[in-house]
Write a structure and sequence with these properties.
It contains seven helices and eleven strands. The chain is an alpha+beta fold. Strands 1, 2, 4, 5, 8 and 9 form a six-stranded antiparallel sheet that branches. It is rod-shaped and about 135 Å long. Residues 181-284 form the Ribophorin II C-terminal domain.
Length: 289
Protein backbone atom coordinates (compact mmCIF):
# COMPACT_ATOMS: atom_id res chain seq x y z
CA UNK A 1 0.00 0.00 0.00
CA UNK A 2 1.43 3.40 -1.04
CA UNK A 3 0.83 6.41 1.25
CA UNK A 4 0.56 10.01 0.01
CA UNK A 5 2.95 12.60 1.39
CA UNK A 6 1.70 14.88 4.18
CA UNK A 7 1.76 17.98 1.95
CA UNK A 8 -0.47 16.28 -0.59
CA UNK A 9 -2.97 15.30 2.10
CA UNK A 10 -3.09 18.88 3.34
CA UNK A 11 -3.66 20.26 -0.16
CA UNK A 12 -6.43 17.74 -0.78
CA UNK A 13 -8.13 18.71 2.48
CA UNK A 14 -8.03 22.40 1.60
CA UNK A 15 -9.51 21.73 -1.84
CA UNK A 16 -12.26 19.66 -0.25
CA UNK A 17 -13.10 22.45 2.22
CA UNK A 18 -13.25 25.02 -0.59
CA UNK A 19 -15.49 22.76 -2.64
CA UNK A 20 -17.87 22.22 0.28
CA UNK A 21 -18.02 25.96 1.06
CA UNK A 22 -18.64 26.75 -2.61
CA UNK A 23 -21.37 24.10 -2.86
CA UNK A 24 -23.14 25.40 0.26
CA UNK A 25 -24.79 28.79 -0.51
CA UNK A 26 -24.46 31.50 2.11
CA UNK A 27 -27.30 33.59 3.54
CA UNK A 28 -27.85 37.31 3.91
CA UNK A 29 -27.99 38.63 7.45
CA UNK A 30 -27.10 41.75 9.42
CA UNK A 31 -25.19 42.75 12.54
CA UNK A 32 -24.84 45.69 14.95
CA UNK A 33 -28.49 46.62 14.41
CA UNK A 34 -30.11 49.31 16.54
CA UNK A 35 -33.42 51.19 16.48
CA UNK A 36 -33.60 54.58 18.14
CA UNK A 37 -36.61 56.91 18.58
CA UNK A 38 -35.80 60.51 19.50
CA UNK A 39 -38.11 63.41 20.19
CA UNK A 40 -37.58 66.73 18.45
CA UNK A 41 -35.82 69.25 20.67
CA UNK A 42 -34.96 66.63 23.32
CA UNK A 43 -32.15 64.21 24.03
CA UNK A 44 -31.73 61.12 21.89
CA UNK A 45 -33.76 58.16 23.05
CA UNK A 46 -32.35 54.79 24.10
CA UNK A 47 -31.05 52.44 21.43
CA UNK A 48 -33.01 49.24 21.01
CA UNK A 49 -30.82 46.38 19.78
CA UNK A 50 -32.17 43.56 17.63
CA UNK A 51 -30.85 40.61 15.62
CA UNK A 52 -32.14 38.30 12.92
CA UNK A 53 -33.30 35.88 15.61
CA UNK A 54 -34.29 38.32 18.39
CA UNK A 55 -36.63 41.21 17.44
CA UNK A 56 -37.45 44.12 19.74
CA UNK A 57 -40.02 43.01 22.32
CA UNK A 58 -40.61 46.39 24.00
CA UNK A 59 -43.75 48.40 23.17
CA UNK A 60 -42.72 51.36 21.01
CA UNK A 61 -44.68 54.47 20.03
CA UNK A 62 -44.06 57.01 17.30
CA UNK A 63 -45.43 60.53 17.83
CA UNK A 64 -45.66 63.30 15.27
CA UNK A 65 -42.61 65.00 16.86
CA UNK A 66 -40.48 61.82 16.95
CA UNK A 67 -37.86 60.63 14.50
CA UNK A 68 -36.91 56.98 14.08
CA UNK A 69 -33.41 55.88 13.10
CA UNK A 70 -32.27 52.37 12.21
CA UNK A 71 -28.54 51.50 11.89
CA UNK A 72 -27.16 48.09 10.87
CA UNK A 73 -24.46 46.35 8.85
CA UNK A 74 -25.50 43.88 6.15
CA UNK A 75 -23.54 40.69 5.61
CA UNK A 76 -23.43 37.91 3.06
CA UNK A 77 -22.43 35.02 5.21
CA UNK A 78 -19.65 36.38 7.43
CA UNK A 79 -18.58 39.12 5.01
CA UNK A 80 -19.90 42.67 5.30
CA UNK A 81 -21.32 43.51 1.89
CA UNK A 82 -23.80 45.80 0.23
CA UNK A 83 -26.98 43.95 -0.91
CA UNK A 84 -28.90 44.75 -4.03
CA UNK A 85 -32.07 45.49 -2.04
CA UNK A 86 -32.62 46.55 1.56
CA UNK A 87 -36.09 47.74 2.59
CA UNK A 88 -38.20 48.32 5.68
CA UNK A 89 -41.81 47.25 5.18
CA UNK A 90 -44.40 49.06 7.34
CA UNK A 91 -47.65 47.08 7.43
CA UNK A 92 -51.07 47.26 9.05
CA UNK A 93 -51.80 43.62 9.88
CA UNK A 94 -55.58 44.19 10.10
CA UNK A 95 -56.20 45.90 6.74
CA UNK A 96 -53.16 44.33 4.99
CA UNK A 97 -52.09 47.79 3.79
CA UNK A 98 -48.33 48.32 3.63
CA UNK A 99 -45.62 50.67 2.45
CA UNK A 100 -41.86 50.32 2.14
CA UNK A 101 -38.81 52.54 2.73
CA UNK A 102 -35.33 51.96 1.31
CA UNK A 103 -32.13 52.19 3.36
CA UNK A 104 -29.10 54.28 2.52
CA UNK A 105 -26.43 51.57 2.17
CA UNK A 106 -22.68 52.00 1.66
CA UNK A 107 -20.32 49.58 -0.07
CA UNK A 108 -19.10 48.43 3.35
CA UNK A 109 -22.62 47.24 4.19
CA UNK A 110 -23.33 49.98 6.72
CA UNK A 111 -26.98 51.02 6.30
CA UNK A 112 -29.13 53.78 7.76
CA UNK A 113 -32.79 54.72 7.61
CA UNK A 114 -34.39 57.88 9.05
CA UNK A 115 -38.16 57.88 9.37
CA UNK A 116 -40.76 60.24 10.82
CA UNK A 117 -44.52 60.03 11.19
CA UNK A 118 -44.97 62.36 8.20
CA UNK A 119 -43.19 59.84 5.95
CA UNK A 120 -45.75 57.12 6.70
CA UNK A 121 -48.91 57.21 4.55
CA UNK A 122 -52.00 58.57 6.27
CA UNK A 123 -53.93 55.34 5.66
CA UNK A 124 -51.47 53.46 7.89
CA UNK A 125 -51.46 55.97 10.73
CA UNK A 126 -55.02 55.03 11.73
CA UNK A 127 -53.91 51.45 12.50
CA UNK A 128 -53.68 50.45 16.16
CA UNK A 129 -50.26 48.88 15.55
CA UNK A 130 -47.76 48.76 12.69
CA UNK A 131 -45.44 45.87 11.91
CA UNK A 132 -41.84 46.77 10.89
CA UNK A 133 -40.28 44.07 8.69
CA UNK A 134 -36.71 44.13 7.38
CA UNK A 135 -36.11 42.62 3.91
CA UNK A 136 -32.69 42.27 2.25
CA UNK A 137 -31.37 40.22 -0.61
CA UNK A 138 -29.31 40.30 -3.80
CA UNK A 139 -28.44 38.40 -6.97
CA UNK A 140 -26.76 35.00 -6.70
CA UNK A 141 -27.33 31.87 -4.63
CA UNK A 142 -27.36 33.55 -1.22
CA UNK A 143 -30.63 33.15 0.70
CA UNK A 144 -32.52 36.45 1.22
CA UNK A 145 -33.80 37.51 4.64
CA UNK A 146 -37.22 38.77 5.75
CA UNK A 147 -37.82 39.26 9.47
CA UNK A 148 -40.12 41.35 11.65
CA UNK A 149 -37.97 43.54 13.87
CA UNK A 150 -40.55 45.53 15.89
CA UNK A 151 -44.15 46.61 16.39
CA UNK A 152 -44.80 50.34 16.72
CA UNK A 153 -47.98 52.19 17.67
CA UNK A 154 -48.49 55.57 15.95
CA UNK A 155 -49.73 58.30 18.31
CA UNK A 156 -51.69 61.04 16.51
CA UNK A 157 -52.45 64.54 17.72
CA UNK A 158 -55.79 66.30 17.18
CA UNK A 159 -54.71 67.95 13.91
CA UNK A 160 -53.54 64.65 12.41
CA UNK A 161 -56.76 62.87 13.33
CA UNK A 162 -58.81 65.39 11.31
CA UNK A 163 -57.07 64.48 8.04
CA UNK A 164 -57.45 60.72 8.48
CA UNK A 165 -59.50 59.20 5.64
CA UNK A 166 -62.77 57.43 6.30
CA UNK A 167 -62.71 53.62 6.17
CA UNK A 168 -63.26 52.36 2.62
CA UNK A 169 -66.63 50.93 1.65
CA UNK A 170 -66.60 47.15 1.80
CA UNK A 171 -69.19 45.03 0.03
CA UNK A 172 -69.86 42.24 2.47
CA UNK A 173 -72.62 40.40 4.27
CA UNK A 174 -74.79 42.70 6.34
CA UNK A 175 -76.68 41.96 9.51
CA UNK A 176 -80.09 40.31 9.27
CA UNK A 177 -82.98 42.74 8.88
CA UNK A 178 -86.12 42.07 10.92
CA UNK A 179 -89.17 43.61 9.26
CA UNK A 180 -91.77 45.10 11.58
CA UNK A 181 -95.06 45.46 9.75
CA UNK A 182 -97.76 47.89 10.75
CA UNK A 183 -100.50 46.42 12.87
CA UNK A 184 -103.86 45.71 11.29
CA UNK A 185 -106.31 48.64 11.52
CA UNK A 186 -108.65 48.26 14.43
CA UNK A 187 -112.31 49.17 14.61
CA UNK A 188 -113.40 51.92 16.96
CA UNK A 189 -114.93 50.96 20.31
CA UNK A 190 -118.40 49.44 20.15
CA UNK A 191 -119.82 52.22 22.25
CA UNK A 192 -119.03 54.79 19.56
CA UNK A 193 -120.51 52.55 16.86
CA UNK A 194 -123.72 52.09 18.86
CA UNK A 195 -124.03 55.83 19.37
CA UNK A 196 -123.87 56.51 15.63
CA UNK A 197 -126.25 53.59 14.94
CA UNK A 198 -128.79 55.08 17.32
CA UNK A 199 -128.40 58.48 15.66
CA UNK A 200 -129.09 56.98 12.22
CA UNK A 201 -132.08 55.00 13.54
CA UNK A 202 -133.48 58.15 15.14
CA UNK A 203 -133.48 59.87 11.73
CA UNK A 204 -135.56 57.15 10.07
CA UNK A 205 -138.95 58.34 11.44
CA UNK A 206 -138.18 61.83 10.18
CA UNK A 207 -137.25 60.39 6.76
CA UNK A 208 -140.49 58.42 6.49
CA UNK A 209 -142.48 61.43 7.66
CA UNK A 210 -140.93 63.55 4.93
CA UNK A 211 -141.83 60.95 2.31
CA UNK A 212 -145.46 60.88 3.35
CA UNK A 213 -145.49 64.67 3.62
CA UNK A 214 -144.36 64.88 -0.01
CA UNK A 215 -147.31 62.72 -1.17
CA UNK A 216 -145.66 59.32 -1.17
CA UNK A 217 -148.35 56.89 -2.27
CA UNK A 218 -148.10 53.27 -1.06
CA UNK A 219 -151.37 52.35 -2.74
CA UNK A 220 -149.49 51.99 -6.07
CA UNK A 221 -147.28 49.23 -4.65
CA UNK A 222 -149.51 46.30 -5.78
CA UNK A 223 -149.88 47.80 -9.25
CA UNK A 224 -146.11 48.37 -9.69
CA UNK A 225 -145.33 44.83 -8.49
CA UNK A 226 -147.91 43.48 -10.94
CA UNK A 227 -146.42 45.50 -13.83
CA UNK A 228 -142.84 44.56 -12.99
CA UNK A 229 -142.82 41.62 -10.57
CA UNK A 230 -139.06 40.87 -10.94
CA UNK A 231 -137.37 44.23 -11.36
CA UNK A 232 -138.71 45.95 -8.23
CA UNK A 233 -137.89 43.17 -5.69
CA UNK A 234 -134.43 42.54 -7.19
CA UNK A 235 -133.59 46.25 -7.28
CA UNK A 236 -134.64 46.62 -3.64
CA UNK A 237 -132.70 43.48 -2.70
CA UNK A 238 -129.58 44.81 -4.47
CA UNK A 239 -129.76 48.04 -2.42
CA UNK A 240 -129.95 45.96 0.77
CA UNK A 241 -127.01 43.88 -0.49
CA UNK A 242 -124.91 47.04 -0.91
CA UNK A 243 -125.67 48.02 2.65
CA UNK A 244 -124.74 44.53 3.87
CA UNK A 245 -121.42 44.65 2.01
CA UNK A 246 -120.55 48.03 3.53
CA UNK A 247 -121.42 46.74 6.99
CA UNK A 248 -119.23 43.66 6.44
CA UNK A 249 -116.36 45.86 5.27
CA UNK A 250 -116.69 47.91 8.41
CA UNK A 251 -116.68 44.84 10.66
CA UNK A 252 -114.54 42.06 9.17
CA UNK A 253 -113.70 41.92 5.41
CA UNK A 254 -110.97 43.87 3.62
CA UNK A 255 -111.10 46.29 0.68
CA UNK A 256 -110.38 43.65 -1.96
CA UNK A 257 -113.23 41.43 -0.81
CA UNK A 258 -115.50 44.48 -0.72
CA UNK A 259 -114.64 45.42 -4.31
CA UNK A 260 -115.27 41.86 -5.46
CA UNK A 261 -118.73 41.85 -3.86
CA UNK A 262 -119.61 45.28 -5.29
CA UNK A 263 -118.50 44.09 -8.74
CA UNK A 264 -121.00 41.23 -8.57
CA UNK A 265 -123.91 43.28 -7.17
CA UNK A 266 -123.53 46.35 -9.43
CA UNK A 267 -124.68 44.79 -12.76
CA UNK A 268 -127.73 43.28 -11.04
CA UNK A 269 -128.64 46.62 -9.48
CA UNK A 270 -128.12 48.43 -12.79
CA UNK A 271 -130.33 46.13 -14.86
CA UNK A 272 -133.11 45.74 -12.31
CA UNK A 273 -133.07 49.42 -11.42
CA UNK A 274 -133.40 50.53 -15.04
CA UNK A 275 -136.46 48.29 -15.53
CA UNK A 276 -138.01 49.39 -12.21
CA UNK A 277 -137.54 53.09 -13.02
CA UNK A 278 -138.95 52.51 -16.49
CA UNK A 279 -142.17 51.17 -14.92
CA UNK A 280 -142.33 54.18 -12.58
CA UNK A 281 -141.87 56.53 -15.54
CA UNK A 282 -144.73 54.88 -17.39
CA UNK A 283 -147.08 55.49 -14.46
CA UNK A 284 -145.94 59.10 -14.16
CA UNK A 285 -146.72 59.69 -17.83
CA UNK A 286 -150.22 58.33 -17.21
CA UNK A 287 -150.67 60.95 -14.50
CA UNK A 288 -150.52 58.51 -11.62
CA UNK A 289 -148.74 59.94 -8.60
Amino acid sequence: MKLLPTSNLLAAGLLLCQWVSAATPSAWTFADATLQISQKGAEAGPKQKFTSTSPISDALTLKNTDSLKILLTTKEGDTAKRPHQLFLFVKDTESELESFFSFDVKESGKARLDLTQKDIPVALLSAPSLSFTLVLGSFGQSTPLSIEIAKITPVLDAAAKKVLPEPPLKYQKLNEIHHIFRAEPRSPPKVISLVFLAAVAACLPGLFGAWFGLSANLSHLPKSLAASPVAHPIFFASLLAFEAVFFAYYTQINIFQTLAAVTVISPVALLSGSRALREVRARRLNGER
